[in-house]
Amino acid sequence: MADVDDLDRKLIALLRTDGRAPVTTLARQLGVTRATVNSRLDRLLESGKVLGFTVRMRDDHGDDDVRAISLIEVEGRSTNEVIKALRGLAEIQSLHTTNGGWDLVAEMRCESLAEFDQVLGRIRSVEGVINSETSLLLNSVLR
What CATH class does 6-47 carry? Predict the structure, then answer.
């Protein structure tokens, strides 16, 4: 990332760990003033280097959770609207744009097959989603 110095990188790393960390905590961990952290955050946001702050979901679910990968085809130029709609589904742990025959790849985790069925229905009902193919993940052999 051009125009990002070591202090910016350390700040970004801290925010990746805890995006809700108070500015005073960040300043203390970085050994700088609150004003420095605030100005760095403002500059990173204004430049587009940091787009915002997000929620990270816990990954320590039970072994019996239903996990799946869903390949999603989007109609025309509605990808951004579909992404916004899918961001609202807590069961989607990650969402990626891709090339090839599919436009998006969603990784999902649900507590049961019934919940999985409901989530799949919600994905398919999003305006702009015209096709999907979903595969259940049975066993992780490499992480």
Answer: mainly alpha
